[in-house]
Design goal:
The complex is a heterodimer of chains A (335) and B (240). Chain A is α/β, with parallel strands linked by helices and 335 residues long. Chain A has helices at residues 29-45, 54-58, 61-71, 96-105, 121-135, 159-171, 195-203, 219-228, 242-245, 247-260, 277-286, 301-315, and strands spanning 2-4, 7-9, 12-16, 77-80, 110-112, 114-115, 139-143, 175-179, 208-211, 232-235, 266-267. Chain A contains 12 helices and 11 strands. In chain A, helix 5 packs parallel to helix 6 (159-171) and helix 8 packs parallel to helix 10 (247-260). By secondary structure, chain B is mainly alpha-helical. Chain B folds into 2 domains: 4-111, Fe-S cluster assembly (FSCA) (GMP Synthetase, Chain A, domain 3, 2-Layer Sandwich); 114-209, no CATH class. In chain B, a hairpin with a 2-residue loop joins strand 3 (31-37) and strand 4 (40-45). The longest helix of chain B is centred in the last third of the chain and has 29 residues, at 193-221. Chain B is elongated. Chain B starts with a helix and ends in a 19-residue tail after the last helix. Classes of the chains: A alpha/beta (335), B mainly alpha (240). The A-B interface holds A 30, 33-34, 36-37, 40-41, 43-45, 150-152, 181-183, 185-192, 216-220, 223-224, 242, 245-246, 248-249, 252-253, 256, 259-260, 295 and B 20, 49-55, 85, 100-101, 104, 106-112, 114-115, 118, 122, 198-199, 201-203, 205-206, 208-210, 212-213, 216-217, 219-221, 238.
Chain lengths: 335, 240
């Protein structure tokens, strides 16, 4: 919980990771380059006081995660969204066993989402069923630009992806988080295009599709499809830290999102450990649309409460203390 | 010191744009070095991340190759993309004229013409929004924009950019051509303009935002790159 000026905010960090990108876990140069790219994101968009040394960044462990999120970071509940990246890292990028053990120790604070890759075909589908049972999955994280042997990515509209999504329906895995990346098969197509999200959102109306990074770098395509598909949501991973480096641009992103998809389908996340939640939450609660940007409505406290936690809490059936909830009519009114 | 040859090479490379950011690769600081000796030109390029999309990277390398090769007195060109996961395939593919499909056998289904056109249209939409913003400031109403002709646009950078983007996608450039047209060149009806303009703003916010992010990442990755970047032409005050 975060409190400021007499208001209390229930905080859900909807996208966190427990990764291991130390040299000994890198399978090849791509693993090293991947974490270096993350570290550049971190260095480019963090306030100087929040910068981590490189060696802390490659691996930080569960204890540090608990401290950064729940002791220092005001977070009430956080959701693991692990990327596998098995072609880059020996034990994968997201550390499944470590994150799951931590979740079991703190079930009130953590939710573990897992991932699948439709290119694993039937074996992966069997695995998904086993994972759903083991982890009690409510959600999965899909990285469509993941490298897999000779393939540099896949689409949600691939026939095998449909079979996996049908399994999600059957298994009660209702929340599908989608992370677009720079590669996809075939390579000549725009890999950030969200048209495939549009297609699956239409065909699987009982699943929620959370597009991470609110579709960036294709904010416009994301807004366009999310306006038409009520089960498409936006995760603010990567967009959040612009609040520090480019507050005007952050205001524009948020203004566009609120205009097109409304206040009930936007979720806060720090993308930990890309960034830490403490400073993002503090700045967000203080944030206001600049006065000269008259094209956007000012942010209300209720909008901030929804984005910072109530929207994700609703999607994940998290128990929100009554004093932190909004009056019944306000939450989900836009659904 | 800038020599005459360097100026010519820089001018040629300035015509090459990053399709996603709608900006010259020179202004973005992507060109690190050029050299010329005995009819042979070498150009070195860098990008904000190791994982920048290979299709856009390929377009920039290929366009740089073509822009320099077209210069008088140039017999041989080498464009070298550095520090990128697909640098070997892209550099070799462009050098041998293999095309995108030939450079990524089995991974690419087609050449990049469609991708290029998609982003030229986005760039046009963003420029259209900026040009309309200028007209609105001058007292035009949103619905009234359906009557605006190219001759109504004051002689500003917004006008120049819009005309260039129109030329890219084959839209008419004559003075009495309507300003507010769709990608197909058809004028947009007055009642549809508010929504179309609203969406055009989202496109412009997206393109500008990506440009800021990529510019910033380049300077994080290569600390000296800031000195090579020039202000963004679409919003000169906001680039740094």
């Amino acid at each position: 919980m975060y409190s400021k000026d007499g208001e209390n905010y229930f905080i859900v960090d909807a996208h966190i990771a427990l990764w291991d990108a130390r040299a000994e876990n890198c399978r090849n140069i791509h693993g090293k380059q991947f974490i270096d790219c993350f570290y550049d994101y971190h260095r480019n968009l963090s306030p100087e006081s929040e910068l981590w040394p490189y060696d802390d960044y490659t691996y930080y462990g569960g204890e540090r995660l608990m401290k950064d999120l729940f002791e220092d970071g005001y977070v009430d509940h956080a959701i693991f969204q692990p990327a596998h990246l098995g072609d880059f890292y020996h034990t994968g990028f997201g550390q499944t066993e470590e994150a799951w053990a931590l979740t079991q120790r703190h079930p009130d604070k953590l939710t573990y989402n897992h991932n699948f890759d439709p290119r694993n075909e039937q074996a992966g589908l069997d695995r998904l069923r086993a994972d759903a049972e083991r982890f009690g999955l409510k959600g999965v994280k899909l990285y469509t630009a993941e490298w897999h042997g000779s393939s540099r990515g896949y689409k949600l509209t691939d026939p095998w992806t449909y079979r996996y999504l049908e399994a999600c329906q059957e298994l009660g895995i209702t929340n599908v988080h989608i992370h677009k990346g720079p590669t996809i098969r075939p390579l000549d197509r725009d890999s950030f295009d969200v048209a495939d999200v549009d297609a699956v959102a239409t065909d699987f109306t009982d699943l929620n599709f959370v597009v991470e990074h609110v579709g960036l770098p294709r904010l416009e395509d994301f807004c366009w499809i999310a306006t038409q598909e009520p089960n498409v949501h936006g995760g603010l991973a990567v967009a959040m830290p612009f609040i520090h480096t480019r507050p005007k641009y952050f205001a524009q992103i948020l203004g566009e999102l609120l205009y097109w998809i409304g206040e009930d389908r936007i979720q806060f996340s720090s993308d930990y450990a890309l960034w830490t939640p403490k400073w993002l939450i503090e700045k967000f609660v203080d944030f206001q649309i600049p006065e000269d940007m008259t094209e956007y409505a000012p942010l209300t406290t209720s909008v901030k409460k929804k984005i910072l936690g109530l929207n994700a809490a609703r999607m994940y059936d998290l128990k929100v203390p009554a004093e932190l909830a909004l009056p019944e009519t306000a939450v989900g009114a836009g659904r | 010191m800038t020599t005459a040859v360097e100026s010519v090479l820089t001018a040629a490379l300035s015509t090459v744009r990053d399709p996603e950011l709608d900006e010259s690769i020179v202004d973005l600081g992507f060109v690190t070095a050029t050299s010329f000796a005995a009819g042979r030109v070498e150009v070195r390029l860098r990008l904000p991340t190791y994982f920048c999309a290979p299709n856009f990277a390929y377009l920039m390398v290929a366009d740089a190759y073509d822009a320099v090769f077209a210069l008088e007195g140039v017999d041989e060109v080498s464009v070298v993309l550095e520090d990128h996961f697909a640098a070997a395939e892209i550099n070799a593919g462009v050098a041998s004229g293999s095309g995108f499909v030939g450079s990524f056998p089995g991974e690419a289904g087609a050449e990049l013409n469609d991708l290029r056109v998609t982003f030229q249209r986005k760039a046009h939409t963003a420029c259209l929004e900026r040009a309309c913003g200028r007209l609105l400031k001058d007292g035009w109403t949103i619905e009234g924009l359906s009557d605006a002709r190219l001759s109504d646009l004051p002689d500003t950078p917004e006008r120049t950019s819009l005309l260039n983007r129109r030329a890219d996608i084959g839209l008419p450039l004559d003075d009495d051509a309507p300003v507010f047209v769709g990608d197909d060149g058809r004028p947009v009806a007055a009642e549809d303009i508010p929504m179309r303009l609203r969406f055009a703003r989202t496109v412009r916010v997206s393109v500008d935002g990506n440009a800021h992010f990529c510019r910033g990442l380049l300077t994080t990755r290569y600390p000296h790159a800031a000195a090579d970047q020039r202000p963004r032409e679409h919003e000169p005050e906001a680039s740094r």
